[in-house]
What we know:
By secondary structure, the chain is mainly alpha-helical. It has two domains: 3-109; 126-301, Intergrase catalytic core (hpI Integrase, Chain A, Orthogonal Bundle). The chain is built from 15 helices and three strands. Helix 1 packs antiparallel against helix 2, helix 7 (141-156) runs antiparallel to helix 9 and helix 11 (256-271) packs antiparallel against helix 12. The longest helix is centred in the N-terminal third of the chain and has 22 residues, at 24-45.
Amino acid sequence: MSDLATHLSAFLRVHLPIERNSSQHTCDAYAYSFQLLVGFAVGNCRCKPSQLVISQIDAPMVMAFLEHIEGKRGNSARTRNSRLAAIKSFFRYLECRMPAYLDQSRQVHAIPMKKTDQTLIDYLTREELKALLNAPDLRTQSGIRDRAMLHVAYVAGLRVTELVSLRLDQFDPRTPATIHVMGKGRRERVLPLWKETVAVIKDWLGIRCKTAGDPELFLNASGRSMTRSGFEYILAKHVEHATAQQPSLAEKRISPHVLRHTCAMHTLQATGDVRKVSLWLGHASMQSTEIYLRADPTEKLEALASRAPPGLQRGRFRAPDKLMAMLQAVGH
């Protein structure tokens, strides 16, 4: 294999999952980014993928690739930035292992990220959330599982990867009941649960397949661990059913991450403390939590009420006389 194949394999199979402790989702996203990049480079260099060398993945090639995925594939600026972040991470990995490519690496790192719009987050009101949690059919095994998944996803503010990777041993039913979450960047946090959430989890554990080989808490219909796409399908199905009770749900684009946003917004509105929101969600810095301050109107209303409006001189409007207006117009 070429030097690119050798180092790229070590980067994806050893450096990311073992040395960096990156999540499986991150590893998959990086691998797909390089799958697209290699496919594009092969078409330009007219060679086999295994014959590509690192020197061919230079800054002009990377910039052409970024233009390709935006123009031809229709990717957004956010997606373009995530692909570039994967490429920069690989060249950062090369710097101490292949010093000969240090100048090439610096040129790649000089490629700027694109600025993206910071839109307000979507979240559910308490009435919309209640309709969603009541949507699963509790007369079926899948309905009991789905209600437990939705409860845990909202109450703990979990990312979808954190939710589907929860294991049985990460749920502690002792009072106070908690779940042990392994979050993004391998940051751990222990979260207490409401009694209602513990009850729906125990309902699910009472009918969960005891002979399942997978240790995950939530299983699919085949008795295997739930996948990201599986939960996305489950959520979309119950959102459709809940829309009959809450028509406002039809106006929102509801993804698994919206449940996390909903937990954050409800926590912020209840406590008024963004630090507690950051702690609950497992954010690495407070900067990530500030998006909820922009979406919550409570503090803005308090700031508006605390200021006195500027005094304005009152006056009375007098309409101009029609005859005088006509004479002035004729004169001009």
